[in-house]
Specification:
alpha+beta, Rossmann fold, eight-stranded mixed β-sheet, 30 strands, globular
Length: about 550
């Protein structure tokens, strides 16, 4: 990229093969942008997360670049004028501000005691990043940032940090986050912004606005209810609000309100046929794992649930899901997981527990969360303990394959795109991106925290393949040969091991399809087979032909065997 001075006809080179520019989403009239250099760290970026980067302030008029951070784990925020650079320091977990006029940096959040500015990484072996970026207000004397719960304002000229939400977030366990009505300015303007709250106790949404009164601002609640707001916008003349809100029972319809969030009118009716079907209800559960960790989870029941009847139970999991309590789930063909509404409508209870992890022991963590949650359910709900199943996809698929090596209490299990052998997976790449897979096991989701050479015993402990002789649970695997995230040979290793050991096992391979299925015929096929599999083991339905006889390769795509 080059810049041309029309008056002098001087041409300046702005970037090069090493220095990349981080440009704003719109063509703003600005002279300075952030530049980044990652090349010195490109090799170790194959296994280190987050990746290291050098950040520069780049003058778009002259091409001059000034080093801001070398190296940095997280991207900072350059003020539109280029004078200030705000950044998060992971060493002390505080925010700092660099002033180009004086070439000095100072901590802007250190004065706030017992406030968390970093995200929850749930047991991953990586450095937690900041919850928010820094937003500058017009004049650049004031900036805004977000902590674990609350929103804060820092005034540069007076070196004062103020909690704009008056600690209501922390007091009431509400996460406050800044939302923009429009993106027509590089500066934050409270007239053009609102605050969305998420109640961690009830998992519901709220909308708030800040109103100025002389030298202070008041936080005012303007909209609230037992639902999730998943879309909100405003008309150009600011006299109408349009939003979508949803619950499990209520499809996210379009709702129109006046500028004060009153005179509410629903203007769409998307799914009127829902009333004709047995739907699902949902409740939020709380219990403790075997090691005393507080856990949350969701229990979905048929709309016509009868406490005097014994129900089969399906357990689905993927990291943390309790926050989705009020999400609407539309019945549709599945890309990889059970459709909760469909299964509840058919007479299943569906349990979705949060999984809290301990570094180095993801398998034990999953076991503790799932098994303790199962114990809680059996004590408090009408469940047939002989008709319980597990289902997970990707990381959840791995956990499914792992848990059935640790217990035989479940009657059936389905693992989509699972890792079966952390040793062989460790040495591969993600086919979709070409990225070395080592980072996942050392730093991120797999949570081993060490290399295979430092702790091979942990890789054995957390690899289902090495524990297959203990398995008694029938297992259905989906592993697709164009999976860009988890190499499909991982599913093959599990399948071949199960067959060698004469364990009940089936594998579905959708040729030329991805990690989560993209083709509708394949989604329909998976939904049918997964339902038949669970109905056989948990609903006493006859096994279909494909489960009894299999489908020869020459008949694939021609014979369904349903």
């Amino acid at each position: 990229m080059y810049s041309l001075d029309i008056l002098s006809a001087e041409v300046h080179q702005i970037n090069n093969d090493t220095l990349s520019l981080i440009l704003p989403n719109k063509n703003w009239n600005i002279n300075f942008v952030l530049g980044e250099v990652q090349k010195p760290y490109s090799i170790e970026a194959q296994w280190k997360m987050p990746t290291l980067t050098d950040y520069y302030r780049v003058n778009l008029l002259t091409g001059e670049s000034i080093l801001l951070q070398k190296p940095a784990l997280f991207q900072g925020d350059l003020s539109p004028s280029g004078r200030y650079f705000g950044f998060y320091n992971p060493t002390d977990q505080q925010f700092y501000l660099w002033d180009s006029t004086f070439n000095t940096s100072k901590c802007i959040t250190c004065q706030a005691k017992d406030v968390l500015w970093q995200e929850d990484v749930n047991g991953q072996a990586l450095c937690p990043g900041p919850i928010s970026s820094i937003e500058f207000m017009k004049g650049e004397d004031t900036l805004v940032l977000t902590s674990e719960y609350d929103i804060w304002e820092y005034v540069i000229s007076t070196n004062t940090l103020t909690c704009l939400t008056d600690f209501e977030g922390k007091k009431n366990q509400i996460e406050f986050r800044i939302k923009k009505w429009s993106t027509d300015s590089l500066y934050l303007d409270w007239v053009n912004n609102y605050i969305q709250g998420f109640d961690l106790k009830t998992k519901t949404s709220s909308i708030h606005q800040l109103f100025s009164h002389d030298s202070h601002r008041d936080l005012k609640l303007v909209y609230q209810g037992s639902f999730i707001v998943n879309y909100c916008t405003r008309s150009k003349n600011r006299n109408r609000i349009v939003l979508k809100k949803m619950t499990l029972l209520d499809y996210p319809e379009l709702v129109v309100l006046d500028s004060s969030f009153n005179k509410e009118q629903t203007i769409t009716q998307t799914n009127p046929q829902q009333k004709d079907y047995n739907w699902a209800t949902v409740s939020l559960l709380k219990w403790q794992s075997y090691d005393g960790t507080p856990l949350e989870g969701l229990l979905y029941k048929p709309e016509d649930y009868d406490p005097n009847k014994k129900y089969p139970l399906l357990i689905y999991y993927y990291e943390l899901n309790a926050a989705t309590l009020h999400n609407h789930i539309t019945p549709k063909p599945s890309a990889s997981t059970i459709n909760i509404t469909e299964y509840a409508s058919a007479g299943y209870l569906v349990f979705v527990p949060d999984i809290r992890y301990k570094l180095g022991h993801p398998a034990k963590s999953a076991y503790n969360s799932i098994m303790s949650g199962t114990d809680y359910l059996l004590k408090n709900f009408s469940i047939d303990s002989t008709k319980m199943g597990l289902q997970g996809q990707s990381w959840g698929g791995y956990q499914t394959a792992q848990v059935i090596t640790m217990t035989n209490r479940y009657a059936a299990a389905m693992a989509g795109a699972p890792v079966g052998n952390m040793f062989s997976a460790y040495g591969g790449i993600r086919w979709g991106t070409g990225i070395n897979r080592q980072f996942q096991y050392e730093s991120t989701q797999s949570r081993i925290g060490k290399t295979i050479w430092e702790a091979p015993e942990l890789y054995v402990e957390n690899s289902p393949l090495f524990h297959l002789p203990k398995v008694k649970t029938p297992l259905l695997i989906m592993a697709n040969d164009s999976d860009g995230s988890v190499p499909w040979y991982q599913g093959l290793e599990l399948y071949n091991g199960m067959r060698r050991l004469e364990k009940p096992c089936w594998m579905l391979n959708y040729n030329a399809d991805d990690h989560n299925l993209t083709r509708l015929p394949n989604k329909i096929d998976l939904s049918i087979r997964m339902r038949q599999f669970f109905d056989h083991y948990l609903m006493n339905q006859p096994a279909p032909i494909w489960m009894i006889e299999g489908i020869p390769a020459v008949s694939k795509g021609k014979v369904r065997g349903y």
